[in-house]
Amino acid sequence: MSLFAEFRKEWRYLIRSYRFLIAVVVLLFFGLTSPVLARYQEELMNAIPTGDITVSMPPATVMTAIGQYAKNMAQDGVLLGLLLTMGAVAMEKDKGTAAMMLVKPLPRGSFLTAKFLSLAAMFAICLIVTGLSAYYYTWLLFEAMNIGHWLVLNLLLFVYFLVIVAITLFCSTITRSQGAAIGIAFGLLVIGWFAGGILRLGKFMPGELVTWGVRLMQGDGSQSWIALGVSLGLIIVPLLAAWQIFKRQEL
Amino acid sequence: MLAVRIEGLSKIFGSFTALNGLSLGVEEGTIFGFLGPNGAGKTTTIRILTGLAHASSGKAWINGVEVGTNHNEVARQIGFLPEEPAFYTWMTPREFLNYVGEVFNLPAKDRLARIDELLTLAGLQESAKRRIGGFSRGMRQRLALAQALMNRPTVLLLDEPASALDPEGRKEVLDFIEQLRGRCTVFMSTHILADVERVCDTVGIIDHGKLVTQAPRDTLLAQYAIPAFEVQVEAQYEAGLKDWGESLKKISWVKSVSIDKLAARIVVNNVDIANKELLPSIERDGLIITRYEVVKPSLEEVFLHLVGQEEAVR
What we know:
The complex is a heterodimer. By secondary structure, chain A is mainly α. Helix content of chain A is 79%, strand content 0%. Chain A has helices at 2-16, 19-47, 62-85, 90-95, 97-102, 108-141, 147-174, 178-197, 207-218, 225-248. Chain B is of the alpha/beta class. Chain B has helices at 42-50, 71-77, 93-103, 108-121, 137-148, 167-179, 193-199, 217-223, 238-248, 271-284, 299-313, and strands at 2-13, 16-27, 31-35, 57-62, 65-66, 78-81, 155-159, 185-190, 202-207, 210-216, 228-233, 254-260, 263-268, 289-294. Chain B has a 6-stranded mixed beta sheet with strand order 6-7-8-3-9-10, with helices on both faces. A 4-stranded antiparallel beta sheet of chain B has the order 2-1-4-5, with helices on one face. The model of chain B has no long low-confidence stretch (mean pLDDT 90). Chain A binds chain B through residues 1-2, 4-6, 8-9, 12-13, 16-17, 95-97, 99-107, 248, 250-251, and chain B through 47, 50-54, 71-72, 75-76, 78, 80, 82, 84-88, 90-91, 95, 99-100, 102-105, 144, 147, 151.
């Protein structure tokens, strides 16, 4: 019951603070511009005066649009995940609202879970709206895509978003300021990207989920189950760690 | 039964000892004033009682339930008002109280009735649909008290409930607390002695993390009573008062006499004899008095005396 009450509070907060609206508008904008830019990139490039330099563009295909969509969603997901999660716990600790409410029969686990679930629900709705809209636009400008594969691509993007949310929520729990939370979370992500690039671990990192989704859209059936397992681990472990730390924290 | 019991509570932050083996007990149904200078350990004690902080050693119980072992059971019995109440400023007071009621798992019908009752009690009925963000400090404090009462707590923990308020706000909050007498146990920390003197029936004085004394307010005042009397006369008896004072100085049970224009302060060795002899001696000298009183110490004097003693020992 307290989890439900807390979830309702968090959900109302996402709506009243316009966080939900911002997330939907940002993702929708980049989701819709992906097929449009892909379709008209040649025209756009030709409109730019280049003098004697000849710019040759490959012909736009549906795959160009899908690639752009996946790249845009992944980038925006990181940004929105960091910005919308960084203050979730840190701000409540700093302002004193956490202390005000956690002396009541509201388990700290419920407090954290409600925050994660509300953010997850928000990103899920954003991706449904954006995914459907982008699918329609891509179909209009190019051709119909495999709807099942499109669904899987968006599901993998959703898991990728949740990794960012879980890591940032963990950072927000261990710190008392939003700045510190986003700093540490960004640092951890940079370490992850370096590990992927330099140590050639990219195939096993959450970023691989986006590549997997794009491959699927191209008709390539190769799978990346390890990356999915690692991603799920990177959701569950930070959440469990945050809960354990938060349980012992003095407010 | 003790509503609040604390035994040997210590809290150490690095090299600073906030609580140093604090022990005390608060009887059910009393308004307990937890008095101490800034930094004495009052807030730390309340934070431990609410589960917001952990004790370095020692234990505490609320209605017999050990704090820190069963948070939910303790949480259902207490109401808490922090020194600086914080709210979700985007909510209205009705929404906030509803959220608090949901956290306490109150049935919808009971919850809605309780919200109306508390909004009326806090004088916020007319502001029930306004955002808390636009509230004054006094309104926030009243709302904070209302939320602390949502679950009909048996123990109400108030951390400096009136310290930050203007005189009008302070009066409102103290009246509010006064109304709770006998309905629940109030554990109220403050450094404002007048507030304690006004509403509390039992007082505990803490200094440097240790309990200096704990007693019913009137017992404490009587215990530290100054054996002195004050007499004031009409204007034409100024000279007569001086003569009377001089004659008193020769009496064995009189310790000292000081006269300031129309008022005399007589400190005695034996209060009982003074009670019998002083008024007849005034009558014998033919003085007409406008004021005659046994000097009672204020809680401030007792507090300064006790805390001063502690400092001297240290």
